[in-house]
UniProtKB/TrEMBL annotation:
The keyword Transferase does not apply. Residues 404-521 form the OmpA-like domain. The lineage of its organism: Bacteria, Pseudomonadati, Bacteroidota, Cytophagia, Cytophagales. GO terms for cellular component: cell outer membrane. This is OmpA-like domain-containing protein. CDD domains: OmpA_C-like (cd07185). InterPro entries: Bact_OuterMem_StrucFunc (IPR050330), OMP_bac (IPR006664), OmpA-like (IPR006665), OmpA-like_sf (IPR036737), PorP/SprF_Bacteroidetes (IPR019861). It comes from Chryseotalea sanaruensis. Gene3D superfamilies: OmpA-like domain (3.30.1330.60). SUPFAM superfamilies: OmpA-like (SSF103088). PANTHER family: LIPOPROTEIN YIAD-RELATED, STATOR ELEMENT OF FLAGELLAR MOTOR COMPLEX. It is found in: Cell outer membrane.
Length: 521
């Protein structure tokens, strides 16, 4: 019996390269198998998800490797909308060899907790307990006890072997740490993670002798280095290191947005181009929507030392749903009910044209601008600007105005800029999205953006920062479909303060962008 087992193990371990060289293999589309990368990833998204990854890798001699991985994760979100933790379940079925001679199944439970180091950042600490069962499937193999002279082997005859000895199982413990930075839409801008698998070094021997499973370290890092319009590029590195080998998966994920919503999730395509040195070249494509994702990739064999590998195909599928806290759902339902029961207004506020002149201005802040109620925000802004534009056009045709740009509206926008920052918050994005829609409805309007800063830092630095803030807002509006030549961006640095910059409150008021909307025939 022992000779048979040892013979089978020798054949197995000399066949599939990943069993010898890397005890802990990785899928090519590892965003569908995140718990295999790092248990902390179960708490890195506001979306509950169920994902499945299927991988098939034929090798020389008909020795096939087939793996299926199911990943389930669910975030826990407080009533204030903060994602504080998450948990997950994962299952894997792995079969190798002719007639699936070697089989491994595993089930795992993961949990992670979050802290928030800074705005848009999440640091997650996760743990996972995994149970794995392995066995050698001898159903398609025969022994001498089943041989009948002149007839051959008869599988109905007992083979004389105790197949229960061909099984092993163990429990392993795993830890992970993951940090990420996201933008206002929730898209990942950069991340870093490291995890430790099988650190308790369980015994996975099929025989009586002890065979300690060595610990594995898995690390991942990525950063968005390029973004222009609908296109962005994120280089990524995944490394898997144990006592036998160190494997690296290096490459880029190029994203192309199919929609350009100013807030929320944008449908997009991910183009995967990566290489595992000495192993394979990976190419793939993924379609990502808010509620589901679908991916297809292929590993092309590469490297003279990997002649048995004939390539691998991988298919990934993910279903997602945004998790909304119960308290927020009740509040949203209450507001919807109140809005439905409220009487409809019979009149609307309008600005009369007679008072509009070249010097007429309207001062407001971003907070006031976004407090217009209900679904009428975009309509209100478009209608207001359309009314002013039409009034100026009437005056121009009557000869009361010269043909030059005239100020329709001037607004001071305090975009909650932090010190040395040009990031836009949700309120700012909402206002600018409404402004972009209004500009689409009023094609003869143009805008001028002038950035300003507080007095902290040098004059040269603040001048550059103020221009950059104006350019950030311009780029945002252009992304919504407005021609760039309709927008002028400039900066004044700290040269035109609204106050004396005596305290933080005054400095915050000076970190602003002045928006002027102009009419030109």
């Amino acid at each position: 019996m022992r000779i048979l087992i040892k013979s089978v193990l020798i054949v197995l371990l000399s066949g599939p390269g990943y069993l010898v060289q890397a005890q802990y293999f990785q899928f090519s589309q590892y965003n569908f198998t995140k718990q295999r990368i790092n248990p902390a990833l179960v708490a890195n998204s506001d979306y509950a998800s169920v994902s499945l990854d299927f991988r098939h890798q034929p090798t020389a001699g008909g020795f096939n490797l087939t793996s299926n991985f199911l990943d389930v994760s669910y975030p826990l979100i407080a009533s204030n909308g903060k994602r504080w933790s998450g948990f997950g379940l994962s299952f894997m079925d792995d079969r190798a060899g002719q007639q699936a001679l070697f089989q491994a199944q595993e089930a795992a439970l993961a949990y992670a907790i979050n802290i928030t180091p800074a705005k848009g950042q999440t640091l997650s600490l996760g743990t996972k307990v995994l149970y794995q069962s392995k066995r050698l499937n001898m159903d398609e193999l025969f022994t001498g006890a089943q041989f009948i002279p002149d007839r051959g082997f008869d599988e109905s005859i007992f083979n004389g072997e105790d197949n229960t000895a061909l099984r092993t199982n163990y429990v392993s413990f795993n830890l992970g740490l993951h940090w990420q930075q996201v933008d206002r839409r929730g898209s990942t801008m950069s991340y870093f993670g490291i995890s430790f698998f099988d650190f308790n070094k369980p015994n996975d021997s099929f025989l009586e002798e002890t065979n300690t499973l060595n610990s594995t370290v898995v690390g991942s890092v990525g950063a968005n280095i390029y973004k222009r319009g609908k296109l962005s590029v994120m280089p990524e590195v995944l490394f898997t290191i144990n006592s036998n080998t160190a494997l690296f998966n290096i490459g880029t994920v190029t994203r192309y947005d199919l929609t350009t919503k100013w807030r929320g999730f944008n449908d997009h395509l991910n183009f995967i181009t990566k290489v595992v040195p000495g192993r394979s070249i990976i190419t793939g494509i993924q379609f990502q929507r808010e509620t589901f994702a679908l991916g297809l990739s292929y590993d092309f064999p590469a490297g003279k030392g990997n002649v048995a590998n004939t390539g691998a195909v991988e298919i990934g599928l993910e279903l997602k749903r945004l998790v909304i806290p119960k308290a927020r759902r009740k509040s949203a339902n209450k507001k919807t009910s109140e809005k439905a029961s409220a009487p409809k207004a019979t009149t609307s506020k309008q600005i009369m044209p007679a008072a509009i002149t070249k010097d007429s201005t309207e001062q407001s802040t971003i907070k006031a601008a976004v407090e217009e109620s209900g679904d009428s925000k975009v309509e209100t802004m478009s209608t207001r600007l359309k009314h002013k534009q039409d009034s100026l056009a009437t005056l121009a045709r009557a000869g009361s105005l010269k043909h030059e740009p005239y100020v329709v509206e001037k607004t001071t926008l305090h975009f909650n800029f932090e010190f040395n920052s040009a990031d836009l918050d949700d309120e700012s994005s909402q206002y600018l999205g409404d402004l972009a829609e209004a500009l689409k409805d009023n094609p003869q309007l143009r805008i001028k953006l002038v950035g300003h800063t507080d007095n902290v830092g040098s004059d040269k630095f603040n001048l550059k920062l103020s221009i950059y803030r104006a350019e950030v807002i311009k780029s945002f509006i252009v992304e919504q479909g407005i021609a760039a030549d309709r927008i002028l961006a400039d900066g004044k640095g700290m040269r035109e303060p609204l106050n004396a910059n005596k305290n933080e409150a005054e400095r915050a008021l000076n970190r602003r962008v002045e928006l002027t909307i102009m009419y030109e025939e």
